[in-house]
Amino acid sequence: MLFPTPAHASMRRVARRFVPGMALVSILVSTSTTAFAAGAPLTLTQAQHLAVERSRQLQAKDYAVTASQEMSVAAAQLPDPTLKAGVDNLPVNGSDRFRLGADFMTMRYVGVMQEITRSDKRKFRAERYQREADKTTAEKTEVVANVQRDTALAWLERFYAEAMAAVVDENATQSEFEIQAAEGAYRAGRGNQAEIFAAKSALSTYRDRASQVNRRIRNAKVTLARWIGTAADSPLAGKPATDTVRLDAGALDTQLAHHPRIAVLNQLEAMAVADAKLAHANKQPDWSVEVMYQQRGSAYDNMISFGVSVPLQWDQKNRQDRELAAKLAMVEQVRAERDDMLRAHVAETRAMLNEWENGKERLARYTEELVPLAKERTLAALAAYRGGKAGLDDVLMARRNEIDVRLEALEREAETARQWAELNFLFPDSGLSHPATTQYKEFK
Questions:
Q1: Distances in Å between the alpha carbon of 15 and those of 10, 12, 138, 335?
Q2: What Rg value do the Cα atoms of the chain yield, rounded?
Q3: CATH class of the region 18-79+118-283+316-424
Q4: DSSP 38-64
Q5: Residues 6+ away with beta carbon under 8 Å from 156
Q6: How much is the pTM?
Q7: Spatial distance between the Cα atoms of 424 and 90, rounded to a whole number of angstroms
Q8: Element (H, E) at 113
């Protein structure tokens, strides 16, 4: 075994403790085992459940939380006592050389020394490790959000690549009919070979596009498999609703104050404050006590010794005070970094919301105007060709324009969906409520 049995038992004990944030993963994966059946269409939500369940990053965070909690318990204990044994005042020359019981000053001793660490120091050391566990729990929430976002991006990439492949295949099939029509017209004396070559060239172009799109599908499956394994080969269900996000543009400052990355910095601040508390407590020295039993020769009495030792903090202004000042400066450093990151997140998210809204506007234009017009143009060119008023080149040009517009519409829709995923999964989709930031008193 990698660990001895007591360590395994200890890890199991800690795993049973309630860790804030661990309920998040339980909510996300509680139904994941039964939520997806092999061969059934894979929804985006099911893919995210599977990704969270399979994530080794989350398991690593669990172990890190366990390690910090175990260290928190250990840090709250007194240091181990020191066993001391030896010989004092042993003669090295003369008639009593190296004789343990001849000289009255020679003593064999055994004793114990214990450092009495102040209870507040031990409490602050334990608190420091607990804050580290809280930070890891906040990081775990951030990992869940990242896994959900990246899984959504991979799922959407495959969904729209397959939608593009369907458009290309549809036009390739139609192009084969046009080749047959051009050959029939040539045999009947109503067309020429140039139209046949043009139709075959169009088919080759569609096949080349199909090759490019199929490459995108394969790559998307590889990326999706990184998160959900073999389920990445399952057929996909319908796309999710991407016209709304779980953000309020008018309350971004408040909402993003609870962003997982900001929550991590809040816990880093708590760790820095715990370090400052410990530095402040270190201004009071710890005492050590010692008890020793001393055995002399049979002609002499045995003795007992005891004593107390304490460090002399004779230069606090250049040692302990400067250590405390350094820790307090680190508290302010983390606070400044957190405030700056919050401002950056708010600005970036506002820009992303603008891009997403613009993407929806452009997509509506493609859906309601450009794509229908392109289809009407193709139908008009085809009707003119059948009536002998237009050549096959006109039909092929109209069809190429239609497929370009339809593929561009899908690109716009895919881009808008990606922006939706980036915005919608800034937070884990679990209904998790975020605790308010703890306020700490300054040291004076």
A1: 9, 5, 17, 31
A2: 37
A3: mainly alpha
A4: TTSPBPHHHHHHHHHHH-HHHHHHHHH
A5: 44, 239, 414, 417, 418, 421
A6: 0.77
A7: 79
A8: strand 107-116
